[in-house]
Specification:
- Helix 2 links the parallel strand 7 and strand 8.
- The longest helix is centred in the middle third of the chain and has 18 residues.
- Strands 1, 2, 3, 4, 5, 15, 16, 17 and 18 form a nine-stranded mixed sheet that branches. Strands 6, 7, 8, 9, 10, 11, 12, 13 and 14 form a nine-stranded parallel sheet that branches.
- This protein folds into two domains: about 100 residues, Urease, subunit C, domain 1; about 325 residues, TIM Barrel (Alpha-Beta Barrel), CATH 3.20.20.
- It has about 475 residues and is of the alpha/beta class.
- It is about 30% helix and about 25% strand.
- Bound molecules: dihydropyrimidine-2,4(1H,3H)-dione and zinc ion (2 copies).
- One zinc ion binds next to loops.
């Protein structure tokens, strides 16, 4: 009997032990050997001059979430997972978002209906808790945690999602009991409302003012408050989408004190600035860059790089939250021009996350390739209970692989992307180093710009507990 279905010959393989130029064998969808292989296989791939990395794990993705009465997200599960695959990711973690008054179980069922038979890559849900009722906290959340929904997000802002401090503490208490991990969107609700009203009263309505309505101090204050509440309850939390030096200073402060806090940052905080929201002369083009927290300044970009380099950040996710620009349910829809506050907060990025960090980080020699793998695959898999099935090239793991050409130079172009948005905020950004093939459980699903597998072979993955 044949020992391998596929062998990659002579690739530069990044494992947890470092770099090695060698061969990799796959059998039945699993990595079955790493080392010189002279065996036969149905497929032998020459990987000379290429790098083999574990498939990307994108731990922060929004798909098909209700986003207000006249707004629609641009991706369904099919387009989002195709886009992720084309960008070198093999697992994503989108949210099942509870609406106020909704049963959490029902919410999870609804998202499964949306996802079933529509997944190009493996997928698992975080929950969003917007209504921590006694039923949710006492029964549904504990039961779902035991069923493999081992992480959930809470918001400190947004009318439809915000939890007050008492509710945050209650949710943290359940997380402690169930050993689940809470992701916190840290921006202060009341301060944002205060600043928004002030700006509107002054007639400052253009998309640029979105940034001024939620400045760094708003994020810094909420980050400190979330960390302090977590310290009181004695649980680790994840501060997601950290945008700049102010919030980062709180994370460093906590880590120095020995408080267990994890942190995530995203491509927009190393590639965009608040000036992008000015568009051309403060026009509505700026709406293309509106996300929350907003992009900051060059000093913040520098601080974010330091956090990526020195190990302060644990993971690098896309926070893919796609809207169309020119669409009656998108950013530039009737009504949105009356105030920045009606511009949906979010930008697409699931397909560009890995190329951007590879190019800006590895190719420009800011971070090592091992750190790249840690931030984009191994740590997200460990953090959210997917490891060692996902996140690493090791014998026994799923053969989820991304094959990189480190010398390929190309520009990001909307016309080449697979997401449902009609624009990318990174148009024309030059990238050195591209993920040219994506393999899911031993099958090449995407290669050289084309989908090889046209049916949806992604599976829903039930998760264990965090091991980070
Ligand atoms: N928070 C996110 O995590 N994504 C998009 C918008 C937001 O506020
Ligand atoms: Zn958020
Ligand atoms: Zn998000």
């Amino acid at each position: 009997m044949q020992k391998f279905d596929t062998i990659f010959k002579n690739g530069e393989i990044i494992t947890e032990n470092g770099k090695e130029k060698t061969d990799l064998g796959i059998l039945n969808g699993k990595i079955s050997a790493i080392g010189i292989l002279n065996d036969e296989a149905s497929v032998i791939e020459d990987a000379s001059n290429l790098i083999i990395l574990p498939g990307g794990v994108d731990a922060h993705v929004h798909i098909d979430q209700p986003s207000g009465p006249d707004v629609e997200m641009a991706d369904n599960f099919q387009t989002a997972t195709m886009s992720a695959a084309a960008g070198g990711s093999t697992t994503i973690l989108p949210f099942a978002m509870q609406e106020k008054g909704q049963s959490l179980r029902k919410c999870v069922e609804d998202y499964h209906k949306k996802a079933t038979n529509n997944l190009y890559i493996d997928t698992s849900f975080h929950l969003i808790i917007s209504d921590p009722s006694p039923q949710v906290l006492g029964q549904e959340l504990p039961a779902l945690a035991r069923d493999g929904y081992t992480s959930f997000k809470v918001f400190m802002t947004y009318d439809d999602l915000v939890l007050n401090d008492a509710e945050l503490l209650e949710v943290f208490e359940v997380a402690k009991k169930e050993k689940t991990l809470v992701m916190v969107h840290a921006e202060g609700y009341d301060a944002i409302r205060y600043l928004t009203k002030k700006l509107e009263d002054e007639g400052k309505l253009a998309p640029y003012y979105h940034g001024l309505s939620r400045p760094q101090i708003v994020e810094r204050e909420a980050t400190h408050r979330a960390i302090s509440h977590a310290e009181i309850v004695d649980i680790p939390i994840v501060i997601v989408h950290v945008s700049g030096n102010e919030a980062l200073s709180q994370i460093k402060w906590a880590k120095n004190k020995g408080i267990k806090v994890f942190s995530e940052t995203c491509p927009q905080y190393i590639c965009l600035t608040e000036d992008d929201m000015k568009g051309l002369n403060m026009d509505f083009e700026g709406a293309k860059y509106v996300c929350s927290p907003p992009p900051r300044d060059l000093e913040s970009q520098k601080a974010i790089w330091e956090g990526l380099i020195d190990g302060t950040f644990d993971i690098f996710s896309s926070d893919h939250c796609p809207f169309k620009f020119k669409d009656k349910k998108g950013k530039d829809r009737p009504g949105a021009r009356t105030s920045f506050k009606w511009v949906p907060n979010g930008i697409p990025g699931v397909e560009t996350r890995l190329p951007i960090l590879f190019s800006e980080g590895v190719s420009k020699k800011r971070i090592t390739i091992e750190r790249f793998v840690e931030l984009t695959s191994t740590n997200p898999a460990k953090m959210y209970g997917l490891y060692p099935q996902k996140g690493s090239i090791k014998v026994g793991a799923d053969a989820d692989l991304t094959i990189w050409d480190p010398n390929k130079i190309a520009k990001i172009k909307q016309s080449n992307l697979h997401h449902g948005s009609d624009y990318t905020p990174y148009e024309n950004l030059e990238i050195k180093g591209w993920p040219i093939e994506t393999w899911l459980r031993g099958i090449k699903i995407f290669g050289n710009g084309e989908f090889i597998i046209k049916e949806n072979m992604g599976k829903y993955i039930s998760r264990g507990f965090s091991s980070l």
